[in-house]
Write a structure and sequence with these properties.
Layout lengths: L6 H15 L3 H6 L4 H24 L1 H10 L14 H15 L2 H25 L3 E3 L2 E2 H20 L6 H16 L6 H16 L1
Helix pairs in contact: 1-6, 3-4, 3-5, 5-6, 5-9, 6-7, 6-8, 6-9, 7-8, 8-9
Length: 200
Amino acid sequence: MPLTIPLKNKKSKIWRKLWHITGICIPLLYLFLLKDTLIIVVLALLLIFLAFDLIRLQNPEINQWLFANLPWLFKKEERRNFSGNISFLISALLTVMIFERPVAILVMFYWVFGDAAAAIFGQLWGKLKIVNNKTLTGSLAFLLTCLLIGFFLFQAGLEVSSNQIIFAALIATLIELLPVNIDDNFTIPLLTGAIINLLA
């Protein structure tokens, strides 16, 4: 039942997903930058966030202040570990390096907006649990968000086919449901991109 989740935890999860949406700057930049340039930008961001996390983890006072005042930036388990920002940037870097530009842009948009939509709609209105504590509402929000964004990108001139848009949305939605103990920062963009390449 959704009401068993404390309201404060719900709000933190929602705010964390809204923060996650700022990661859309990476595929947005890819619309205008060359691949090599974007790799340098993402590497620079990764080094900045890595340095921030190292400082935070080496200074308990700073770490405590951040968790007390900005709890929506972190998961509970990140108090003594690197934050999700690191895995996000590593995955974005790998996605840009491995896949062709249109596929990389498509899966990154799906990853950022789809995951956020699933979390927000699932937390606020999800009642029916289906797999791995995920809700039907969240999964439908993920799928519909991806489809809307995919066709918007298509209309905007991204060189992807309607089949790629639909299959990628379905695949990303199913991957988000996988009951595996692997960070979805890696599974959603990398597995979706790999499968779309195989189907091409």
